[in-house]
Amino acid sequence: MNQFATPTDERNWAMFCHLSAFAGVIIPLGNVIGPLILWSMKKEDSELVDREGKKSINFQISMTIYLFISGLLVFVGIGILLLIALALLNLIFVVMAIVKTLNGEDYNYPFSINIIK
Q1: 5-29 pLDDT, tens digit each
Q2: Is residue 108 part of a domain?
Q3: Which are the contacts of 58, defined by CB distance < 8 A and separation ≥ 6?
Q4: What is the pLDDT of residues 83-95, one digit of tens each?
Q5: Residue 114: inside a domain
Q6: Upper half-sphere CA count for residue 5 (Cβ side, 13 Å)
Q7: Residues 6+ apart with CB under 8 A from 102
Q8: Do the Cβ atoms of 58 and 114 come closer than 8 Å?
Q9: Is 72:79 a contact under the CB 8 Å cutoff?
Q10: Using CA atoms, how far apart are residues 27 and 13, in angstroms rounded to an integer?
Q11: Which domain holds residue 42?
């Protein structure tokens, strides 16, 4: 049941699922919680929001796992470089997903573990 007035509204909500990952800058685990809340609220209203929300959540869970492992590797010396690289990749990939979603294009995050199907 589509409750969105226009396809633009639908794309905007799908984009917000990706954008909400930046909540992690302010709230611990906000990168997962933000997309999870939006996806939970709107997944029944739109197939696009359902699909994009799952992609965002899966990628952010994957990044959280990678960041945790990199944090452990700080003690070995390589972790700091990995943490910086992962933070930059997260920023770049989320921005790419936002732009592609707004343009109506499909975007699949690289390095994403498919946890929510």
Answers
A1: 677 788 999 999 999 999 888 888 8
A2: no
A3: 109, 112, 113, 114, 115, 116
A4: 999 999 999 999 9
A5: no
A6: 2
A7: 11, 12, 15
A8: yes
A9: yes
A10: 21
A11: 7-102
Q: Number of structural domains, the chain?
A: 1
Whose CA is closest to 90, among 47, 37, 49, 30?
30
Contact 93, 108 (CB under 8 A): no
CA dist., res. 11 & res. 56, Å (int): 14
pTM: predicted TM-score of the whole model, two decimal places: 0.89
> Three-state DSSP class for 15?
helix
Is residue 66 included in any domain, yes or no? yes
> Residue 112 falls within a domain, yes or no?
no
Render 38-95 in DSSP notation, one character per residue: HHHHHTTT-HHHHHHHHHHHHHHHHHHHHHHHHHHGGGTTSHHHHHHHHHHHHHHHHH
